[in-house]
Design goal:
This protein is α/β, with parallel strands linked by helices and 230 residues long. It is 37% helix and 20% strand. Helix 4 links the parallel strand 4 and strand 5.
Length: 230
């Protein structure tokens, strides 16, 4: 149960979210932290980077044998800190039917972000939501999403795009989302990635191919069934 009257920062990212990118799944998710602990988490992860002589951004795509010790420690850090939470929703893009629902893919994108966020936004708290900037169009998407969310919520203080290198928690979201997408696509070519996935599954107590319980707060995954509307 979240404490009352607090501010939370949510760092959102997405993977293979474009309509026609040839990939079977769309995964969007976030890592959240109470605002007053943000500086501590960023500094701790940066210190871990220095310890492992890692330069640049954390990225699932960059995970290799040589970098495995760092990513292994990073996953331990996430699961050992109760203040850090993760949630993701996964969409099977073969079920997309924008014509039937009279929507564009951009409108669908807003709806999916709403599904991601609305279960975790509590009216007695305030929220700063940050999205990874992908291109110049990202600003318009953030503006559209903010307007969409504000129909139901007045406690979103900020919703803006930032560059992922500015936030260690945004980079952590990339790693966790990347792990889910890698697993559900049945990819297993990189041993270091397979080992990280096994570690995540062990610590969250569920295969990444399955729902977690709805009330799971630490590591929450929801597979949306567009055909049945849930």
């Amino acid at each position: 149960m979240e404490a009352q009257n607090k501010t939370f920062n949510l760092y959102c990212d997405e993977s293979t979210h474009l309509e026609n990118d040839g990939q079977p799944f769309m995964v969007i998710g976030y890592v959240s932290t109470p605002y007053h602990l943000l500086k501590m988490h960023n500094e701790n992860i940066r210190e871990m980077k220095r310890k492992h002589f890692l330069h640049g951004e954390l990225k699932w795509s960059a995970l290799s044998k040589s970098q495995y010790p760092f990513y292994n420690e990073l996953i331990d850090y996430f699961f050992s800190n109760i203040s850090l939470q993760f949630r993701a929703i996964i969409i099977d893009k073969s079920q997309l039917n924008h014509t039937k629902f009279k929507q564009t893919h951009d409108e669908f994108y807003d709806k999916m972000y709403y599904q991601l966020l609305n279960k975790k936004i509590h009216l007695n708290n305030t929220y700063n939501i940050y999205m990874d900037i992908k291109d110049t169009y990202s600003y318009l998407k953030a503006k559209s999403l903010k307007k969409y969310l504000e129909r139901d919520y007045t406690n979103i203080r900020n919703l803006q795009v930032i560059k992922s290198y500015e936030s260690e928690l945004m980079q952590l979201a990339d790693v966790l989302i990347g792990a889910i997408n890698y697993r559900i696509r049945g990819m297993n070519r990189v041993t270091a990635k397979n080992n990280i996935i096994e570690k995540i599954e062990k610590l969250c107590g569920k295969p990444l191919t399955q729902h977690t319980p709805k009330d799971e707060e630490k590591f929450n995954m929801f597979y949306i069934d567009l055909k049945n509307g849930n």
